[in-house]
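step: validate -> pass
step: tokenize input -> pass
step: predict -> running
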Amino acid sequence: WADKKALTEYLTRLEEAEKRDHRRLGRELDLFHTQEEAPGMVFWHAKGWAIWQAVEQYLRTVYRDSGYQEIRCPQILDKSLWEKTGHWQNYRANMFTTASENRDYALKPMNCPGHVLVYKHGLHSYRELPIRYGEFGSCIRNEPSGALHGLMRVRGFVQDDGHIFCAEDQIESEVVAFHRQAMRVYGDFGFPAIGVKLALRPSAGQRIGSDEVWDKAETALRQALGACKIEWQELPGEGAFYGPKIEYHMKDSIGRSWQVGTMQVDFSMPGRLGAEYVGEDGARHVPVMLHRAIVGSMERFLGILMEHHAGRFPAWLAPVQAVVLTITSRQDDYASRVTEILKNQGLRVEADLRNEKIGLKIREHTLQRVPYLLVAGDREQESGSVAVRTRAGNDLGSLKIEEFARRLASEVTSRGESA
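step: predict -> pass
step: emit ->
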């Protein structure tokens, strides 16, 4: 180490990372667990699934607002399809396979071939392009057991996957539009510092397609990044076997970098699977396929969110946004009514009616990182209000139920940080 200060900073970061370990938070906050009977798979508990749903519904609005049609494809596809795409030859070691009635199948490790089959189900005109499909697609990959790590490295995962079928002259505008979408999403989740990298062609034996096709694909991505007016780092040899890709790396609250989103140009798969469109000249043409994901693996992204926020999720993501706490059993009916009023407005609220001291209740729910604690005593019951306290210990005083509901709803809508 250069000096004692650098060593101290490093050790502090290690200690902080251990405190934020998503596996530890998963246990403490009752979010999820993994176990030996399902290696690399996740058991989501109710609170963890509430966070998942908040993330998924948000991303669904991004699909809708950006012109994507949400679709759903099968989990198991015949070996013949994977041979056509090149996965059987280039990716088989990472695939789970099965057989039935003398046919070989694979559980999909990627969603792209299914999207091509949806595209192929009708004949398309150049006037329809670009066509954008989105899917929260479940994938299975045969990752080595020694590499599995909580939510960060799993075998079964869901991607916010999307594929754009377009003409060559539409690549740049589609990549620029995706870049803007991705940057907005990362900002909404609290990650303003984003690094961009361009992963280029792997070595000759590890890719499909001619050098001419790879030149065209890499040039298209460079031009699109240039149009975004950003800086990027190039990574020779790091592209997928079917095309180069833009990678988005976000920095978390303790300075660690995580690779999340990708945008890939693919000139190979559509042609291999017979995808076409009718051009302005009346002839058949093969579309370009853009593979895109903003958060990538949902499991991994939620793990990153847990560690980034140290379990103190902003209100819009918190599994429980507020808890109504009674002081005595006299307030039970009132606390239950308050809870129902707030829940009916789409807020995630619970009531704690246990016969315990209010100090204990406050302490327990603060440890659970609940954004707002609403104390309902005799005085609050008489005035139709709640005494509002934040998890940081700030006393916001007594608020009418409607006033608190507006405050929380506004915070959720704006995706702001909780006090």
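step: describe -> The first strand starts at residue 32 and ends at 33.
step: cleanup -> pass
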